[in-house]
């Protein structure tokens, strides 16, 4: 993707070490929050302190620890909710207002363009978000780890395919931002992960499943 002017903030919020991300266009002062959860005051203050208006909520997947502020923020703002089309059916009442995304859907926030990558496996509708040379992976990929597949909608074969057939094909210099603070670093380049993350280097689906235990 082309290089863009962007306001970008990563914040760890809540008791499960979730990362909440803020992406904004500094020209229009419109912003998106990715996986809004846990601390509504902190989310609102982060936006207001920099003069940004919440334009959209982008959801990597529908587990409660990643979306528990969606309903409250939707009632308070005019923000649109973007979720993969395969994830929406699993949601509660607000799913009727969610905008369905697909693989390679581009979301525009002011002049900022964010591309969706459908990465099923942790859940059926898990998706990552790409902008410039960055990828926000939710619970699909962690630093030196990956998401669980033993919860409803999880599928080890699909997760292997998402990692080996999609994310692994991105350039090495792509910077990865995970959904939780489970490592010593807050972000890392994919080139390093292709070498050190065993789930990225698994040669076959059988190897991958064997590592899952």
Please explain how this structure is put together.
The protein is of the alpha/beta class and 213 residues long. The protein contains seven helices and 14 strands. The chain has helices at residues 40-49, 64-67, 70-76, 156-165, 190-196, 198-201, 205-212; strands spanning 7-13, 18-25, 30-34, 53-58, 80-84, 99-101, 106-109, 112-118, 127-131, 134-138, 141-142, 145-146, 175-178, 188-189. The strands form three sheets. The chain has a six-stranded mixed β-sheet with strand order 1-2-3-4-5-6, with helices on one face. The protein has a six-stranded mixed β-sheet with strand order 7-8-9-10-13-14. α4 packs across α7. The longest helix has 10 residues, at 40-49. The protein starts with 6 loop residues before the first strand and ends with a helix.
